[in-house]
Design brief:
It is a single chain. By secondary structure, the chain is α/β, with parallel strands linked by helices. The protein is built from twelve helices and nine strands. It has a seven-stranded mixed sheet with strand order 5-6-4-7-3-8-9, sandwiched between helices. The chain has a two-stranded parallel ribbon with strand order 1-2. A hairpin with a 2-residue loop joins strand 5 (129-131) and strand 6 (134-137).
């Protein structure tokens, strides 16, 4: 129920949601309350949807436009499909980029995963933020929350997203803090790897590729496409920056990339 801040004492037994806040915050609070309840039989029925596609954006390099590319790709795909963006970096800078704090983030979601919460989907829905039709869970603020998460917990989270959520595409912005990065990359249907052309960067890429072969994950290299996103000057650091990515030179680059891939599939 919504409330004006004052209600009869007999209603205290019921959850309440403050009325005078943004509609998106009201929805998140309602989903959080709903997630605290037991699942009904209807909740346990699998969501009818298309197969969920996981796209990974990863590079052993820094300052290669990995996150800007991932956010641009996610927004463009979200124009026609249900897309979730997950930033799995130790340092994402999202609160600074968005110019606001978040009441809940990926750390909270991972906590519910570890607790084997049966209402995980509803808990996640209460945390979801949206920008330009692209859904995202705010990233962690503490790097240790990425480093100390067991692979089994990541698997549990992705299982929920694939089996229970309505998302058709999950865009993973992958950092280097996850111990089982090769297993994570192996889950992806497609991997984009931003690269740089200088000698040191090429040596780092070669080291990564050698490790992939040593650990016997050659399929990762087969589905990895190296890309050279165009650098662009940021006019502002705010949600406007993220939204403007779609109409930047980087946005044109991503649209052209997707167009070429679509043509390959048709042929």
């Amino acid at each position: 129920m919504t409330t004006l801040g004052v209600h009869p004492p007999e209603l205290d037994q019921y959850p309440s949601v403050y009325k005078y806040q943004s509609s998106s915050d009201v929805l998140r609070e309602v989903m959080a309350c709903y997630g605290a309840e037991k699942k009904t039989v209807a909740d346990q029925i699998a969501v009818l949807k298309k197969t969920t596609e996981i796209i990974g954006i990863f590079s052993p390099l820094g300052r290669c436009l990995k996150t800007s590319f991932a956010l641009t790709l996610g927004q463009i795909l979200a124009k026609e499909r249900a897309v979730l963006y997950l930033n799995m970096e130790e340092y994402s800078g999202f609160e600074e980029l968005m110019g606001k704090g978040f009441a809940h983030n990926l750390s909270d979601l991972l906590y519910y995963v570890r607790q084997d919460n049966q209402n995980l989907l509803y808990k996640m829905n209460s945390m979801i933020q949206t920008i330009n039709n692209l859904d995202y869970v705010p990233p962690v603020q503490m790097p240790a929350d990425i480093r100390t998460t067991a692979w089994q917990d990541w698997e549990r989270l992705f299982q929920m997203l694939i089996l229970d959520s309505s998302y058709e595409v999950i865009v993973l912005d992958i950092g280097c803090g996850i111990d089982e990065n090769f297993q994570l990359l192996d889950m992806c249907k497609k991997i984009y790897m931003p690269v740089l052309s200088d000698a040191v960067s090429q040596c780092k890429i070669a080291q990564f590729e050698n490790l992939v072969r040593i650990w016997d994950y050659p399929q990762i290299l087969e589905k990895t496409e190296k890309i050279n996103p165009p650098f662009h000057m940021a006019t502002c650091l705010s949600p406007a920056y993220v939204e403007q990515l779609m109409w930047s030179e980087l946005g044109d680059y991503v649209r052209n990339l997707l167009r070429k891939e679509s043509q390959k599939k048709e042929n």
